[in-house]
Structure to design on (228 residues):
């Protein structure tokens, strides 16, 4: 596709439910990132994938959060037993993982706005 | 731990005026990025700065990097309404793919 695609664009859920957020990166991009953006805040790094592996999971806020990537393409971020503090916009980005790293510009999706009631 | 601070957080300015947004980071970084985010939209990459003294310009925006001071600036020249957006800087540490973002500067250009 032309850009990074995220779905759904909006998700309203009840506290305690599980949610899955999907990211389709730009074709051929090997690096994929998930971020969380709370209202009026900057971006909080959650997890990074290189291919299908996640060498850096340090940003996941709790064990309720998990992510996977299959086929070096689509990624899913899962939040179990959602809490109200999970409400935020979840952004996905991909990059081509070029060398030198200077060329490793991130391209962002439009995000999924998650509201936990 | 790498931390990134931006100031000001909010900026309201008149069209035609000049202003500078500052981005300070706490430890050595090998790359610094500037992004723009329009309301309700995603982030768009503006500049990548790699070395001390690097300067990049696009239209009315100019970004510079001082690695010794751990400071980057985004200078706005003769602002126009279309520049109204939130601007973020982000840095990475050497050899990593982890991007640390600043809190953003919300710019509003008044006609």
């Amino acid at each position: 596709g032309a850009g990074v695609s995220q779905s759904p664009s909006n998700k309203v859920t009840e506290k305690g439910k599980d949610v899955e957020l999907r990211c389709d990166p730009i074709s051929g991009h090997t690096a994929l990132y998930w971020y969380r953006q709370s209202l009026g805040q900057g971006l909080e790094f959650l997890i990074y994938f290189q291919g299908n592996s996640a060498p850096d999971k340090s940003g996941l806020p709790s064990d309720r959060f998990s992510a996977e990537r299959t086929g070096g393409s689509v990624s899913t971020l899962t939040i179990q037993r959602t809490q109200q503090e999970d409400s935020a916009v979840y952004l996905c980005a991909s990059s081509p993982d070029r060398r030198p790293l200077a060329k490793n510009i991130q391209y962002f999706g439009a995000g999924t706005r998650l509201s936990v009631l | 731990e790498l931390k990134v601070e931006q100031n000001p957080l909010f900026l309201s300015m008149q069209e035609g005026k000049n202003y500078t947004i500052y981005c300070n980071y706490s430890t050595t970084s090998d790359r610094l990025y500037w992004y723009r985010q329009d309301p309700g939209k995603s982030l768009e990459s503006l500049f990548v700065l790699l070395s001390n003294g690097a300067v990049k310009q696009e239209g009315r925006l100019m970004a510079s990097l001082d690695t010794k001071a751990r400071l980057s600036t985004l200078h706005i020249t003769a602002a126009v309404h279309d520049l109204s957006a939130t601007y973020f800087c982000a840095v990475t540490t050497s050899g990593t793919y982890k991007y640390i973002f600043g809190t953003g500067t919300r710019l509003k250009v008044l006609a």
